[in-house]
Write a structure and sequence with these properties.
single chain; 227 residues; Serine Threonine Protein Phosphatase 5, Tetratricopeptide repeat; 9 helices; 0% strand
Length: 227
């Protein structure tokens, strides 16, 4: 069985498993899943039915968006009023992250990180934002830095496993980081589900070995590109 086929077999399981964990409070922020919800816009083929107008927006969603907009404005005002304080910068980054405006989130996360370089959760959020922009190397570098100083950081280990799987097509790498995650015995995640995913990966690796496919290189724990 080819490596690409193996990855596709496990993608659905892992992406579904991804929902529900986060760094800021471990429940609020959805972690990694490769963003593929922006397909290219193609012109309709000749004879295709005319596009239908968008439905009227949900009033509740409109209210939530207005509230989020007000929170962003207040946060940005705090950033200007407290230029040396990382807290409003983190808040602004979180708000933009929640809106999936990851480039703007990065802008504020990076400023906050310069003021508070020891905040590992902030570093994970920053790396995750790079991942959502498909800047895999920067995401790996950021998570690697966290794992170098905090080898048992649960979300960094989990996210690194996602990157190994979806960004690097590296089953063995994903297995390594998730096995390390299980070994932490963290109570912030459902480790039983992670063990089940490890069993799936083990079956994939066994099938790959039986078929004589070349094994991918195994990354060093917490390693960063170029180091």
């Amino acid at each position: 069985m080819h490596q690409k086929t193996l990855i596709m077999l496990i993608v659905g399981i892992v992406v579904g498993f991804a929902a529900g964990y986060g760094v800021r409070h471990f429940q609020e922020k959805t972690p990694l899943a490769l963003p593929k919800d922006h397909p290219p816009m193609n012109a309709p083929a000749p004879g295709s039915p005319a596009p239908q107008p968008d439905p009227q927006p949900d009033p509740r969603q409109q209210a939530q968006m207005e509230q989020l907009k007000r929170e962003v404005e207040l946060s940005l005002a705090e950033v200007k009023a407290r230029p040396g304080d990382p807290a409003p910068l983190k808040k602004a980054g979180n708000l933009y992250y929640d809106q999936k405006e990851f480039q703007k989130a990065i802008e504020y996360y990076e400023q906050a990180a310069r003021l508070d370089p020891k905040d590992t959760n902030l570093q994970v959020d920053l790396a995750t934002s790079y991942w959502y922009l498909q800047q895999t190397d920067k995401a790996v570098e950021g998570l690697g830095a966290v794992l170098k100083s905090h080898p048992d950081h649960p979300q960094a280990l989990y996210n690194m496993g996602i990157i190994m799987l979806h960004g690097r097509n590296d089953l063995k790498g994903a297995r390594e980081y998730w096995a390390r995650l299980v070994a932490t015995k963290t109570e912030t995640m459902d480790l039983q589900q992670i063990r089940q995913r490890l069993e799936v990966i083990d079956r994939m690796l066994a099938a790959q070995k039986t078929d004589g496919q070349p094994q991918p290189a195994r990354p060093q724990p917490g390693g960063m590109p170029g180091k």
